[in-house]
Design a protein that fits this description.
Elements lengths: L15 H10 L6 E5 L5 H12 L6 H12 L4 E5 L2 H11 L5 E5 H9 L3 H25 L6 H19 L19 H14 L1 H10 L2 E4 L7 H10 L8 E6 L13 H4 L8 E2 L1 E2 L4 H12 L15 E2 L7 E8 L4 H19 L10 E3 L3 H7 L3 H10 L1 H4 L14 H4 L1 H6 L10 H10 L10 H22 L6 H10 L7 H8 L16 H14 L2 H11 L5 E2 L1 H4 L4 E8 L1 H4 L6 H5 L6 H8 L5 H13 L2 E11 L2 H11 L7 E3 L2
Parallel strand pairs: 1-5, 1-6, 2-3, 2-4, 4-5, 7-8, 9-13, 9-14, 10-11, 10-12, 12-13
Bound molecules: adenosine-5'-triphosphate (ATP).
């Protein structure tokens, strides 16, 4: 009898790579769901498995699989959440023709792109179902179907007719496409899910190209696509083997399944990673305690492995600070500075006083307030709420209709120095990049006059940019007047429209899309120009203020999590309810009764994700409606020791 190796200490998970290789190379192969908690090194595990299965690292059964894949011209498909994750895995794996790594959008488009008749049928079917649901919902309303409902139905019908008329469909996973037949991310995912369910040929094509599909961050992967793949992986279906990697405790997007572990079929293997290689022991204990706590209003089960810190990581500093949310924004910012000074005194880490710690204010609106771009952000939300904030996947380029402000004008502004002078060569380069030199008149005199006109407008633009009191309208006026670029017609029309913004809708009142957009444009034109640059940096993920996108998969030495429901402005998340300053609402209670996801569930996961980003030290700052009550309940929670709980003066 051969002894089963027992792994302990830091090597606790050392057998998991071999375990997974066993599932994927056995006959028939076995699908699996890998519980991989925060900081458990799932990328490393994934890459090690891929190396063995493709013959890069010596492995008897892996070599057999590799030669079979090569013989049939097949490859293992890895689907990740972001382009960045694709680059990380490819970088660690090196050149490997038996593995294809991509985002879910690229994966889906590679499967369905070019099958225009099928795409059309799928999109129409999906939209028809949505329309039927909208109609049924509207008919159930107390006052029946409203005019706004009818307009919304007409919009969907128009969309359907657009699909019917399209002969070819255009899509790019990394940028938005325009014009007839252009479809966006969501359409591609919807169409793929529908086609996988309804077209056996597509299932066969998938299995023939990629007999093994491994999906990273499966807890946040679009549920319709995941369901379709899980259906394809059923033994009686096509024989596709699926490997899902994920941590349901870290689900932060609404696209994913609410309780993925409970959906894993009983014949799948469920290996587990139990180490947390990232954080010091105190932080690992805290996240274990947070996840295990039985809170009022919690519906999600506390399933998941308890993690172990590395044996040498015995330290770590955690503090929770509580202050009053009624304080002014300025006082709260000062309060946060005070907290970071305390952290500096406790840890001795200079990062806490030199702004080198990571501030996580996850709700976009709170980030906008802390990052000093609230007006621009509010306007962008009105113009296009789906594109206003950075999302976890794809490139974040903001609403399509305002890109001229975020691209061309940003580039133009970068040509100016602080003293207001500008680099003519750089300006010419910007104009050339955007094809504006090609449209200059050929006649020498007319050309010189046009160049003069442009230079005057550019100088005016620069002067207005450097005036901190300038509004967006003031800065863009000379550029639009000189027809320097070709902005989106929606922006130009909105700028030319001199009508006043409509009043915001009253409570319970419905607002037309047109009125909402007009309010958005007016708010944007009236917003300070300086906010735009900060907004742009945030969209690009370069801000010191983090977003979900930055947080996913990231780690930082020292982390401050700012929790302020008041300024976050959302209703889906409430730290004050989770940590005790506010009672649960009747909706929270009825959701719990109905077994629906509650505010507590969502907030708990978000807190879990943020806390688990820290390697060395972690400061939680709660701005509460009732600091005394919050302090009392935090003490009673047992999450923190007495000296870890502080009041912000
Ligand atoms: N076996 C290991 N030995 C030592 N360090 C490791 C090991 N695996 C991972 N690490 C380190 O632990 C940290 C966390 O790893 P990684 O970011 O891959 O985790 P993850 O599972 O993707 O976490 P999350 O889901 O929280 O983003 C990284 O700094 C990584 O270098």
């Amino acid at each position: 009898m051969s002894a089963v190796p027992v792994f302990e200490g830091n090597e606790r998970d050392a057998g998991v790579v071999e375990e997974i290789c066993g599932y994927l190379t056995q006959q028939p192969p076995r699908s699996y769901f890998l519980f991989a908690g925060a900081g458990s090194g799932k990328t490393r595990t994934l890459v090690e498995v891929l190396r063995r299965l493709t013959g890069v690292t010596e492995h008897e059964k892996g070599a057999v699989l590799a030669s079979r894949l090569r013989m049939h011209g097949r490859s293992i498909r890895v689907v990740t959440y972001t382009k960045n994750a694709v680059a990380v895995i490819n970088g660690r794996l090196g050149v490997n023709d038996l593995v294809q790594v991509s985002t879910i959008h690229s994966f889906c488009w590679e499967l369905i792109g070019g099958f225009d008749d099928d795409i059309r049928e799928a999109l129409v079917a999906v939209k028809r179902t949505q329309l039927a649901e909208m109609v049924a919902k509207a008919e159930r309303k107390k006052n029946g179907v409203s005019d706004t409902d009818r307009r919304n139905f007409a919009e969907v019908e128009e969309e359907i007719q657009g699909y019917v008329a399209a002969t070819t469909f255009k899509y790019h996973p990394d940028k938005s496409t325009q014009g007839p037949g252009a479809i966006q991310h969501q359409h591609v995912l919807d169409a793929t899910a529908w086609l996988l369910h309804n077209r056996p040929t597509l299932r066969t094509i998938l299995r023939d190209r990629h007999p093994v599909v491994l999906i990273d961050e499966s807890q946040d992967t679009m549920k319709s696509v995941l369901d379709a793949l899980m259906a394809v992986a059923k033994p009686e279906a096509s024989g596709l083997t699926l490997g899902l990697l994920g941590d349901h405790r870290q689900r932060i997007y609404h696209d994913g399944h609410e309780d993925l572990p409970s959906l894993v079929p009983s014949d799948w293997a469920t290996p587990e990673l139990r180490m947390n290689h990232r954080s010091q022991a105190r932080i690992v204990t805290l996240i274990n305690t947070i996840w295990a706590s039985q809170l009022e209003g919690r519906t999600q089960p506390a399933t998941g492995v308890e993690q172990h810190a590395r044996t040498e990581k015995t330290g770590g500093v955690v503090r929770v600070f509580v202050g009053a949310t009624s304080k002014s924004k300025e006082d709260k910012a000062l309060g946060e500075r005070w907290c970071s000074a305390q952290m500096n005194a406790l840890t001795g880490a200079e990062a806490w006083t030199s702004d080198a710690y990571q501030l996580l204010a996850l709700e976009h609106k709170l980030v906008a307030v802390r990052g000093s771009f609230p007006q621009v952000f509010e306007a962008m939300l009105l113009i296009d709420k789906n594109a206003a904030a950075p999302s976890g996947s794809g490139e974040n380029t903001g609403p399509a209709s305002v890109r001229f402000l975020l691209n061309e004008l940003a580039e133009l502004q970068d040509c100016f120095s602080d003293d207001g002078s500008f680099d003519e060569f750089a300006v010419t380069e910007v104009l050339r990049r955007h094809d504006r030199l090609a449209v200059l008149p050929a006649d020498a005199t007319a050309r010189a006059a046009r160049i003069d006109e442009l230079m005057t407008a550019i100088a005016e633009f620069g002067a207005r940019c450097s005036d901190p009191s300038s509004t967006v309208a003031q800065v863009i006026a000379p550029v639009l007047a000189a027809r320097m670029f070709e902005p989106d017609s929606r922006l130009q029309d909105a700028f030319d429209d001199e009508s006043a913004p409509p009043a915001p809708p009253g409570k319970g009142e419905e607002e037309t899309k047109q009125a909402r957009m007009r309010r958005g444009w007016c708010a944007l034109f009236a917003a300070p120009w300086v906010e735009l640059r900060k907004y742009r940096r945030y969209l690009a993920g370069n801000s010191v203020l983090a977003t979900h996108q930055v947080v996913k998969g990231s780690e930082f030495e020292h982390v401050m999590v700012v929790m302020d429901d008041e300024e976050a402005g959302g209703f889906l998340i409430s730290y004050d309810k989770l940590l005790g300053g506010k009672d649960l609402s009747s909706t929270d209670k009825s959701n719990k009764e109905l077994g629906k996801e509650t505010t507590i569930d969502r907030t708990l996961r978000l807190l879990y994700v943020t806390c688990s980003r820290a390697r060395e030290s972690l400061a939680l700052v709660l701005w509460s409606a009732d600091p005394a009550a919050a302090l009392g309940r935090i003490k009673a929670s047992g999450w923190f020791t007495g000296d870890e709980i502080c009041s912000v003066p």
